Amino acid sequence: MKYVLVTGGVVSGLGKGVTASSIGVVLKACGLRVTSIKIDPYLNTDAGTMSPFEHGEVFVLDDGGEVDLDLGNYERFLDVTLTRDNNITTGKIYQSVLERERKGDYLGKTVQVVPHITDAIKEWIQRVANIPVDGNNEPADVCVIELGGTVGDIESMPFIEALRQLSFTVGKENFCLIHVSLIPVLGVVGEQPLLENTKEKLSQFCHVPAENILNVHDVPNIWHVPLLLRALLHACIACSMKPAIDWIAASDLEDESAKSTPEAHASAWKTLKSASCVLVPGGFGDRGIGGMILAAKYARENNVPYLGICLGMQISVIEFARSVLGWEDANSEEFDEKASNLVIKFMPEGSRTHMGNTMRLGSRKTLFKTPHCVTSKLYHNSRFVDERHRHRYEVNPNLVNALEDGGLKFVGRDESGERMEILELPGHPYYVGVQFHPEFKSRPGRASAPFLGLILAATNQLEGYLKTDQNGS
């Protein structure tokens, strides 16, 4: 096994993840099989309880692991399926060492950062690096490791020491270090390519050959775009189009906004009414819920293609119950526990006391009730699909019959038949809600079916596509 370690300096957010992913692609293009490991030095055991505003979006793996978004980059670039163990955190390492200490594995020893924590890090890396991730039963040829944060951070030190030891263990011919750093340009001249004399100076002080110092300047790229928009990008690529995406703050659509921020309110509604399709993504909490419901109502009543993901699906159920069935107080238990018509309920197996790793997570099977629904056709008439989940609320199974009698159809359900996974509104150009997160398994060359359907419907190509696809051409 050969290892490539990518570290960062000066500041975080320089693009270590994109660099690591790109290196993996280059190695794969050379005929090598590649796996990846992301090290996050924070004390959290995983990213599940962290705010997207602070850390970025959470990515969910097949096994239910809630991990850093960089693992999503690895999966897409390399077309591999990773596990929760491909994301190492300080919390996981210390937890594993303390569990071993309690069992007596270190009996008689004083447990210390060196050698016990560093040994645990090395053992974890070498174990995970040898797990096949590309469908082949053999281990990969190369493991690309990204060390999060910046070199010099206190929390990174045990990992740097462990990786230093690992480099000697495997030998210099099997270990390559790539350091991503910032070369600032003072003044207003803007960013310049790295000059030769600058490379020579860096080489002299860093003991790195000048020919090994590469200039990677800033360029516009998709990695500045939120995860959900990339899923959309894949669908547009499949349709030979480039997406034009407008974000709408859901709270700006609400009536209160018309009074407090009338310009933002007017702009939000203008943007919504000019959209060719509407997407309401997943999320948590009650901020902007009223605006999301208004967006779903607008799309439903005006035949605008709509896709609701996770919370977005639940929003469409609430809106339908209120507007079509006349249940004015229809709501989710997440937003109003006392509502008389709780169309969205807390899952019975969920925990109300612990937040981390207590949701319905990972790859789950969804069975189609009928092959004649739009989503089944988009999935090429599959009898079932496996998609990744991340939720703790679901459609209330006791109210499904009433919702279906009113015209909303739940065309996809879990294996028990009690958990609603996909909804459609017959007669609408494209009104689809999915409880799972299809963006997690989308690939640039293999667009996710619900997103593809949304783009096709928005461009009046859906009907023709489905006819062509059914004919097998």
From TrEMBL:
<dbReference type="Pfam" id="PF06418">
    <property type="entry name" value="CTP_synth_N"/>
</dbReference>
<comment type="similarity">
    <text>Belongs to the CTP synthase family.</text>
</comment>
<dbReference type="GO" id="GO:0003883">
    <property type="term" value="F:CTP synthase activity"/>
</dbReference>
<keyword id="KW-0067">ATP-binding</keyword>
<dbReference type="InterPro" id="IPR027417">
    <property type="entry name" value="P-loop_NTPase"/>
</dbReference>
<comment type="pathway">
    <text>Pyrimidine metabolism; CTP biosynthesis via de novo pathway; CTP from UDP: step 2/2.</text>
</comment>
<feature type="domain" description="CTP synthase N-terminal">
    <location>
        <begin position="2"/>
        <end position="192"/>
    </location>
</feature>
<dbReference type="GO" id="GO:0005524">
    <property type="term" value="F:ATP binding"/>
</dbReference>
<dbReference type="InterPro" id="IPR029062">
    <property type="entry name" value="Class_I_gatase-like"/>
</dbReference>
<feature type="domain" description="Glutamine amidotransferase">
    <location>
        <begin position="242"/>
        <end position="454"/>
    </location>
</feature>
<dbReference type="InterPro" id="IPR017926">
    <property type="entry name" value="GATASE"/>
</dbReference>
<dbReference type="InterPro" id="IPR017456">
    <property type="entry name" value="CTP_synthase_N"/>
</dbReference>
<comment type="function">
    <text>Catalyzes the ATP-dependent amination of UTP to CTP with either L-glutamine or ammonia as the source of nitrogen.</text>
</comment>
<dbReference type="Pfam" id="PF00117">
    <property type="entry name" value="GATase"/>
</dbReference>
<dbReference type="InterPro" id="IPR033828">
    <property type="entry name" value="GATase1_CTP_Synthase"/>
</dbReference>
<keyword id="KW-0315">Glutamine amidotransferase</keyword>
<dbReference type="GO" id="GO:0042802">
    <property type="term" value="F:identical protein binding"/>
</dbReference>
<dbReference type="GO" id="GO:0019856">
    <property type="term" value="P:pyrimidine nucleobase biosynthetic process"/>
</dbReference>
<dbReference type="InterPro" id="IPR004468">
    <property type="entry name" value="CTP_synthase"/>
</dbReference>
<protein>
    <recommendedName>
        <fullName>CTP synthase</fullName>
        <ecNumber>6.3.4.2</ecNumber>
    </recommendedName>
</protein>
<keyword id="KW-0665">Pyrimidine biosynthesis</keyword>
<keyword id="KW-0547">Nucleotide-binding</keyword>
<keyword id="KW-0436">Ligase</keyword>
<dbReference type="GO" id="GO:0044210">
    <property type="term" value="P:'de novo' CTP biosynthetic process"/>
</dbReference>
